[in-house]
Design goal:
- With 179 residues, the chain is α+β, with helices and mostly antiparallel strands.
- It has five helices and ten strands; from the N terminus they run ββαβββαββαβααββ.
- Strand 1 and strand 2 form a beta hairpin.
- The radius of gyration is 19 Å and the shape is elongated.
- The N and C termini lie far apart (45 Å).
Length: 179
């Protein structure tokens, strides 16, 4: 089984037709589903949040079978993730795609669980401590995209689960959990 880094790739990754958009609707739907799952799994395993459509992305080519996804296929697979609410285009020209291997509401739940497990009720942490602190090591939160984190925190703030305090810079923005 071929790998990209330490990531094991599914069998379809070695099948040349899967690197070309399939013309038959049923086959294309299956192809798109397989690619969506692969992209989400890979991004989660490697904590990747942004994929550039024009940039080298390890999954978009397989040198062993001399195949690469063309622009149309890349955009089709990422657009399918967007339609599922698992990604968002970051620009109008669809050059950058934010991958949401957890939806924002799911990130909010993960953060709330993290706060409860670490006894952070009525505690204050900086946003950077949540992203990169000792408490978050070994969790999906550690190293997460700051923009995604802020959106999840704002969702929790709107639900009354925490308060966000603005600092003089983005490095000292704080969060007080009230779970």
């Amino acid at each position: 089984m071929q790998t990209v880094g330490e990531h094991k790739l599914p069998h379809f990754f070695h099948y040349p037709p899967y690197f070309t958009l399939q013309p038959v609707r049923e086959t294309r739907e299956k192809q798109i589903q397989l690619w969506k799952e692969l992209i989400l799994d890979y991004c989660r395993a490697h904590k990747i949040f942004v994929i550039g459509l024009e940039e080298d992305f390890p999954l978009f080519s397989n040198p062993a079978i001399e195949r690469s996804l063309n622009h149309e296929a890349r955009e089709a697979f990422l657009s399918a993730l967007v339609l599922d609410g698992r990604a968002e285009w970051m620009d109008k020209s669809h050059r950058q795609c934010l991958i949401l291997w957890h939806r924002i509401k799911d990130w909010a739940d993960i953060i709330l669980h993290f706060a409860k497990e670490n006894g952070l009720e009525d505690s204050v942490m900086t946003v950077e401590e949540i992203r990169t602190g000792i408490e978050s090591r070994g969790t999906d939160i550690h190293g997460m995209d700051r923009g995604v984190l802020m959106r999840a925190l704002k969702l929790l703030e709107n639900k009354g689960k925490l308060a966000i305090f603005k600092g003089t810079s983005t490095d000292d923005e704080g969060v007080k959990f009230s779970v």
